[in-house]
Amino acid sequence: MSAPRPLGSGPRPLGADEPLRTDEPLRLERRITLRYRFAAGRFATPFFRALRGEGRVLATLDGDGNALLPPRPVSGLTNAATTGWVEVGPTATLSGYTVVHVPFIDPMTGERRPVPYGFGLVRFDGASTNVYHLIDETDRTRLRVGLALEPVFKPPAERQGNLADIRFFRVRGDAAPARARPIPPPDQGEPLVYEQKIDLPYVYTAGAAQRAFLRGLARGRIVASVDAEGVRYVPARSHAPDGRPLERTEEVAPHGVLEAVTTARHLPGEPAFGLIRIDGSRTLLVHRVAEGAERLGPGARVEAVFAPGEREPSVNAIAHFRPAP
Amino acid sequence: MGRRVAIVATGQTDHVSRRTDVNVAELAREAVDRCLGPAELTLADVDAIVLGNMEMFEGINMPDQWMASTLGAAGKPLFKLNTGGTVGASTAVAATQLIAAGTFRRVLCVGYEKHSEGSVQAAITTVGDPVWERAVMAGAIGNFASMASVYVDQSGVTEEHAAKVAVKARRNACRNPHSHLKMPGITVQDVLDSDMLAYPVRKLDMCPSSDGACAVLMADEDDAPSLAPRPAWVHAAVTAHDQQYMGDSLKRLAEMRSLIAASRSAYRQAGIDDPLRDLDVAEIYEPATYAELAMYECLSLCGPGEGGRMIDEGVTEMGGALPVNPSGGVLSANPVGATALIRVAEAALQTMGLAGDRQVDGVRRALATGYGGNAWTEALVLSTERP
Amino acid sequence: MPSAVIIGVGETPHAPRRDDVNTTELAWEAVSTALDDAGVDLDDIDNAVTASQDFWEGRTISSMAVNEVVAGYLRPESKVAADGAQAVLYAWARMAGGTYRLGLVLAHCKESAADPHAVDVAAMDPYLQRDLDVDETVAAGLQAAMLAYPAQVRAAAVAASTSRSPWRDPVDAEAVLASEQTATPLHALERAPLADGACALVVADEATAARLGRDGVRIAGCGTSTDPYWTDRDLTRAPALAAARDAALTAAGWDGLPDVVEIAAPYAHQAILWGAGMGLGPPEQVVAHLGGGGSPRGGWLGGAPGVVAGLSAVAGCVLALRERPGRAVAHGATGILGQSHHVVCLESA
Known about the structure:
By secondary structure, chain A is mainly beta. Helices cover about 10% and strands about 40% of the residues of chain A.
């Protein structure tokens, strides 16, 4: 733990010997990982049971005889509830096609699909709509709208109850296309729920005031923005809460008042957090407070404890706030 | 029928592949300042703000709330929309309706996107329905190219026709200081030589992903004349959506149902019988060259299958009967949350006579369209004349 | 000012988990109920405004999931990424401006489908807060600490709200205080439970409502406003709420609040703060209001999911006014600790 910084009597402008280089870009690389459980619902559940278990393809009918796939409760074409179920395909017709040369990372497997690959809009025979799917053909001169196709399924053990249970469509010899066959409403059974993890990488670009603040933190300094009346805002930022642009920054002493504290018992490790008003700041900073600080009352004085050693330009350059003498 | 509404000011950032100097809030505010500043207005003159952006692209949940202060929205009504590529135009439609109702007198529309901050591919994955559409995806290009092949098959347009659209766009963009891509010497051969991404779409057939923002100030009829010497009056602001899944429309590009419906409705509202004759300029949302050709047909600028003829005959070039995308279009700049609003702004600039080097002479009526979501459309008609 | 009339209400029975339906089906449950209530068909609808949040839905352009159930095919559906009460304002303007005649307003969310901690953290400042892993519960704990309402009072607010709820079993004050602590001083039961649900309204212009012979409830005025981000403002006050309320009352031409006021707040301490900010008086008076007929169904603490809560408040007021004609005010909030507020004034037509 580094020694506390001397508490000055007021803000200190950045010295000439300590250039902060706020002009160089600062970009924070981060990830957001979101986990979901998506309920398939009353139409997808029987559809994927039939696809996975029996290689059968189902659709819903509307009042005009459109067979809608994916099946759904309401047809936009009639603005009314769908009226029944049909079985379609599994043969299909090519509605639109392409051969893709751009690498794409398969969101379900995280793997890059080898290029080139055929892709297109496929209409199961008897359906009025298409689905996008893979086509087993990479010579685009051999593809045309209207081509007769058939699905190639994954082996039953590999199927997961989604459209990738069909590995791809391939061209089939010209045989008559299938028609939609009415079926009774399928049994629901246990509702299907799909778990998905969405992993999204981001690079957050810092603006000038943020660069000053974050680089200041890395150097063990607190930087405020200052408005025309001399009012300070910590953390430094481009605009005041009321929207006025803030042109100037200055360094301020790393201590202030604890406005509120909470212990997050619902989080692992039960960390304590506080809202800190750095002296003179109109705005607040949220950060961890040291063990024991949660017993401090509002209005207690606190000071920043910077992390030891080399610090990243991030909020974790401050280890926590602790009671100040 | 409600209050009349006009666009009185616009502002845009200079769209680029990467803005390393500002965060998303500052990017949006830059457009706001560029809109209000020259008009000698401040945020105090704005009653409400409508913000358009696709939050999963930049990774901030409720970005409108996070950036409220920097945007100038603290203390004001703030609306956040996220209707995909159409969102920029959705903000303009929302603002029009809010003013028409007398709810507000001056509404600022803001659209922004900072594609350099996220993975476009990963975010595009989240567009698909999680249960139906995510298991088999090929990115935006694979999806689009599949649609384009239907149009090619039906219309007989060639890759040369498409290349001519690319050349028109990138050359027009040279006269637009805000444009991301400017290619003054680009030729049809350059386009045909560019890498094939997914048949029939080549690299130079596609729009870029840009960092950029746009702001448009709309005002009530009583305020507009004092705010702009020549306001761009809104004669129609139409939205049309579609069915729910990406494959629902059998000819999603070739016969874009929402574009056909929305444009017909907009023309009817604006008293336009023959759009080729009655419109003086159009800023349309063309995600790729083939889309522009198909859109000529869906917009009734020509008959079915005649998109190729239109570009061959130079009808939509600067100097042609109906210049399309003097700004360079989406093909030249594409910050998704702003892109459709940029179409509205460019159409407004043309109407207001403020389009500088890209100004079409004698504009009385302009069309702006937005495209995105699941082949959704917005169509706006602007005019120098009060409705 | 021209107004719009709510002639139909539909709401799903909000529940912790609806694994039997997807988002489209959940929305249709609410919409079809509202259509039946209004006596109109889906095909009669000429426009829709929906409310959903992409991070909760796990979907970019989350309104895509509901387009067909709101008559979106070739028709205008727009949306707000905010609480459903703000969608009412937008829908009201669309009708009042004369653009449309018969519309749907829909709010939907399946909170059980998402990881709430991750969704909350994603709303935190990515430069200076995200790395701390603070979520909305932490922020709420800090706010509650600043407000320092006694625990008994907060617990009484929960008991009062749940006593009015059609979806939750009543929770008594002792149970609230006995529940696990979350971010001190808060207990788990001080927060509304996560829920899956949808709510829909059918809104008509005056002429259409008259033609259909429905009395309906008039949207007399709406307001919405925004405060600065949570660390940039005084968390013990809610100026945006007062601004939204004043804008709504002014638009309605009302002098003051009616007896029926439904606040939608996820935390007990916020129900008290926002009740006070609305004008219901000091904490004890707010608690009394929450437990009495002035609060139709307990607001967000009554069990609606967050994005739906404000629209649910509107729906509850409509139902209350059908029983006892008069006036009501409904409220909703968006953002961390209620950064934006939306207020809707309703009166029997």
